[in-house]
């Protein structure tokens, strides 16, 4: 009996001791957990609640006021900057000026800008009258012309370049930097090219009917090549091993030329599409003077539409030249040519005109 009581007493004391040890361990761990720093990751819900409870009301109000001050400061800066801009605009108003007729575009365009119809009736006579008046009225004067040799024999030469000192060609000739491009098919008379070559210009004559690819003749270079409004199909070029026609931009790139002082072209009714390519690709910025023969007896290659629309298209192309700072200084019509205007006798117009423009803003 005594042994049983002794055993129960020892067990009871042992249980009490273990309980006390467990309580101490629990209190120790709880204290260490509360004193440990918060983890760097996303806080738990319990830690957020504990942090919110630990913040006092004055601290919350002070932080809210600082946030409001920061926001108000940023907005005030924006308003002040706008007000300053308005004040500057009031103090220094930009002087009124007239915008250019066309913005200067260096990126390729897809189509030209057609001019308004000459009249409400959209008739051929109205369009022809406006067009013919435009191509027969020089816009600037040229005190000195370089013409074909025929002009020196008493007859008026068709082709003429302007060597007036107020334009750049004279200075380019004197500095030996003049360059001339002449495009044609089977051209026999190259008197203008020869006179410019003797003056010191670097002359390149392009003729797809030549037998040799490149040939130097006296003061000029001859090339079996011509200008077109599109580059040849690569498959056709591979079959023929060479191309007879290229766009002007491609020719300039192939020859390594950046400027052409005088560009002369007699393209036998392909001039309209070629001129359109000049305008759309912006290569006219590289040309100082443009000498062109226009053929009016028919619409021209790949030019469609009824007669009034064709003449409106022609006129729009020439107006694009004017927007590119080209001004007409020389006009010639051959009296021996038939008087045909789109297969008709319209206002006694000739079937061919030779025109010369100078780029008044050209500074190579």
Which helices and strands occur, and which strands form pairs?
Elements: H1 2-35, H2 45-54, H3 57-91, H4 124-135, E1 145-147, H5 149-152, E2 160-162, H6 168-174, E3 179-183, H7 191-199, E4 202-206, E5 214-217, E6 220-223, E7 226-227, H8 234-240, E8 245-246, H9 248-255, E9 260-265, H10 271-281, E10 287-295, H11 307-323, E11 326-333, E12 352-359
Helix pairs in contact: 4-11, 10-11
The number of E-state strands comes to 12
- How would you sum up the major sheet? 8 strands, mixed
Uncertain residue ranges: 37-57, 66-81, 91-101, 151-155
Q: Assess the beta-strand content as a share of residues.
A: 15-25%
Strand order of the largest sheet: 5-6-4-3-9-10-12-11
Structural class: alpha/beta
Shape: elongated
Helix content bin? 40-55%
Architecture overview:
This protein has 364 residues and is α/β, with parallel strands linked by helices. It has a domain at 125-359: Rossmann fold (3-Layer(aba) Sandwich). It has helices at residues 2-35, 45-54, 57-91, 124-135, 149-152, 168-174, 191-199, 234-240, 248-255, 271-281, 307-323, and strands at 145-147, 160-162, 179-183, 202-206, 214-217, 220-223, 226-227, 245-246, 260-265, 287-295, 326-333, 352-359. Helix 10 (271-281) packs across helix 11. The protein starts with a helix and ends in a 5-residue tail after the last strand. Mean pLDDT is 81; it is low at 37-57, 66-81, 91-101 and 151-155.
């Amino acid at each position: 009996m005594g042994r049983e009581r002794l055993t129960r007493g020892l067990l009871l004391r042992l249980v009490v001791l273990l309980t006390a040890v467990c309580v101490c361990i629990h209190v120790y761990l709880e204290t260490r957990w509360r004193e440990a720093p918060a983890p760097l990751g996303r806080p738990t819900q319990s830690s957020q609640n504990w942090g919110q409870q630990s913040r006092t009301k004055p601290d919350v109000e002070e932080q809210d006021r600082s946030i409001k001050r920061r926001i108000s400061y940023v907005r005030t800066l924006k308003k002040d900057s706008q007000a300053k801009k308005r004040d500057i605009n009031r103090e220094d108003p930009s002087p009124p000026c007239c915008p250019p007729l066309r913005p200067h575009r260096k990126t390729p365009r897809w189509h030209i800008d057609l001019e308004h119809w000459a009249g409400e009736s959209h008739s051929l006579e109205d369009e022809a009258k406006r067009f013919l008046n435009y191509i027969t009225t020089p816009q600037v004067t040229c005190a000195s012309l370089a013409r074909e040799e025929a002009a020196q024999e008493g007859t008026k030469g068709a082709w003429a370049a302007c060597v007036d000192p107020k334009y750049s060609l004279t200075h380019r000739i004197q500095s030996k930097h003049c360059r001339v491009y002449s495009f044609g098919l089977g051209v026999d008379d190259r008197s203008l090219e020869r006179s410019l070559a003797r003056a010191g210009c670097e002359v390149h004559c392009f003729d797809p009917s030549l037998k040799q690819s490149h040939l130097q003749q006296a003061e000029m270079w001859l090339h079996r090549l011509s200008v077109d409004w599109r580059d040849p199909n690569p498959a056709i070029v591979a079959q023929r091993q060479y191309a007879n026609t290229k766009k002007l931009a491609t020719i300039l790139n192939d020859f390594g030329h950046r400027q052409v002082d005088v560009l002369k072209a007699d393209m036998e009714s392909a001039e309209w599409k070629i001129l359109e390519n000049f305008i759309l690709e912006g290569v006219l910025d590289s040309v100082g003077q443009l000498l062109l023969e226009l053929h009016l007896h028919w619409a021209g290659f790949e030019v469609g539409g009824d007669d009034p629309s064709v003449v409106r298209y022609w006129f729009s192309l020439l107006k694009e030249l004017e927007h590119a700072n080209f001004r007409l200084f020389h006009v010639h019509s051959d009296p021996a040519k038939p008087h045909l205007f789109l297969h008709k006798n319209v206002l006694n117009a000739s079937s061919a005109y030779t025109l010369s423009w100078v780029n008044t803003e050209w500074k190579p």
